[in-house]
Amino acid sequence: MAEIIEMPKLSDTMVEGVVAAWHKKVGEEVESGELLAEIETDKATMELESFYDGTLLYVKVDTGGSVPVGELLAVVGEKDEDVEAIVQKYLDANAAPEEPAAEEEKAAEPSVPASSNGSATPVAAPAPVVAGGSSDGRVKASPLARAMAQEKGIDLATVSGTGPEGRIIKRDIENYTPPAVAAPSAAPLPVGVERSYDEPLSQMRKTIARRLSESKFTAPHFYLTMEIDMQHTWDTRKAINAAGDVKISFNDIIIKAVAMALRKHPKVNSSFQGDHIRFNDHVHIGMAVAVDQGLVVPVIRFADSLSFSQISSEAKRLAGLARDRKLQPADMSGNTFTVSNLGMFGIEEFTAIINTPDSAILAVGAIRDVPVVKNGAVVPGKTMKVTMSCDHRSVDGAVGSAFLQTLKQFLENPVSMLV
């Protein structure tokens, strides 16, 4: 008996999948548990195993083709089965009900006045008026005007007639002024070649476009920016890495500080749920990672309870999986707050779009060498700007500001995070 294989939902945001590769060809034997295909989702490339024994009778699309979730992808059965009938039966059973056809609009007809005896009296439509000519396109001009125009080399089509019904007469030729001709430019402009190309959206880019549009146009964003003295964090990282046992990044320290600040400000560690606000006791930090196809956000779980070295190890592991497109759905779900860091690219300050369902996201800029005032003197210093985007439905300005004050205290005195 033939078995229908539909496109599975391999992630919580997946709406369609792209067949990255078929590992079986039509006509080949397939065993249950055997790898059938690789499916590219909006977040990663996943392996699709067969749950049935038999022969691969039909595939809907070749490699590179896309199929919506829940629709026919392949058929596995016995060799002698009528696959066309099987596919048609499936399509008929899953066809959407037809909607009643809309009535055809009637063409508008000109109104016809009625005659005195009640019958309709047809009225002829007025002929269009052609300037300087008749309705059949011929130019109307007097014989004398035609002769004068021919003698002077004047095109009658360019002459406006002032005689009866627009007829061109003698004085029109005598007073004729040729139409102005634009003077050529002093030097010809350089001629280039216009080129462009179109690239189909990947599943990941489609999802990024959809989810960020939903976030930006649904959640009322507001932004809070703060400058933080990073000299002590700079010195602390240098001392830890000099020990040689572990190497940590500034982003690892920032994630730890954010997680501990969220523990003190649970109203920021929340999400708007339509008719209620959900406050999370756990702290799961989403870490924005750039990949070739766009942006993914793997999640560091219980980040507030992890050490710098543990955060560093987990961040490296997740970033590697992201770049190899081997992240699993569980690696990218459950975030309660997100950190997006562009400081390594030299970006001093930016704003980020909230990564739903979070109530906020922190945009981290570069650490800069700047003059600062300490003890009444101007000395060299290192500062960093952060901007928090907040969902005003669940986080107010005072709540967000208090969170940033705590974050600032942790980063300006990183030893306090080790207590």
Shape: flat
Spatial separation of the terminal alpha carbons = 65 Å
Average pLDDT, rounded to a whole number, is 86
Could you describe the largest sheet, including whether it forms a barrel?
6 strands, mixed
Count of helix runs: 8
The stretches of 5 or more residues where confidence is low (pLDDT under 50) are: 101-131
Strand order of the largest sheet: 9-18-17-16-12-15
Q: What proportion of the residues is helical, as a percent range? A: 10-25%
> What is the radius of gyration?
37 Å
List SSEs in N-to-C order.
EEEEEEEEHHHHEHHEEEEEEHEEEH
Number of strands: 18
* Beta-strand residue fraction: 15-25%
SSE-based structural type: alpha+beta
Ordered list of secondary-structure elements with their pairings:
Elements: E1 3-6, E2 16-22, E3 29-30, E4 35-40, E5 45-49, E6 54-59, E7 66-68, E8 72-77, H1 83-93, H2 143-152, H3 170-174, H4 203-218, E9 221-229, H5 231-242, H6 250-264, E10 270-272, E11 277-279, E12 285-287, E13 289-291, E14 294-296, E15 299-300, H7 308-323, E16 337-341, E17 360-374, E18 377-391, H8 397-412
Parallel strand pairs: 12-16, 16-17
Antiparallel strand pairs: 1-8, 2-4, 2-7, 3-6, 4-5, 6-8, 9-18, 10-11, 12-15, 13-14, 17-18
Helix pairs in contact: 6-7, 6-8
Descriptive account of the structure:
The chain contains eight helices and 18 strands. The protein is of the alpha+beta class and 419 residues long. The strands form five sheets. A six-stranded mixed beta sheet has the order 9-18-17-16-12-15. It has a four-stranded antiparallel beta sheet with strand order 1-8-6-3, covered by helices on one side. The longest helix has 16 residues, at 203-218. The radius of gyration is 37 Å and the shape is flat. Residues 101-131 have low confidence and may be disordered.
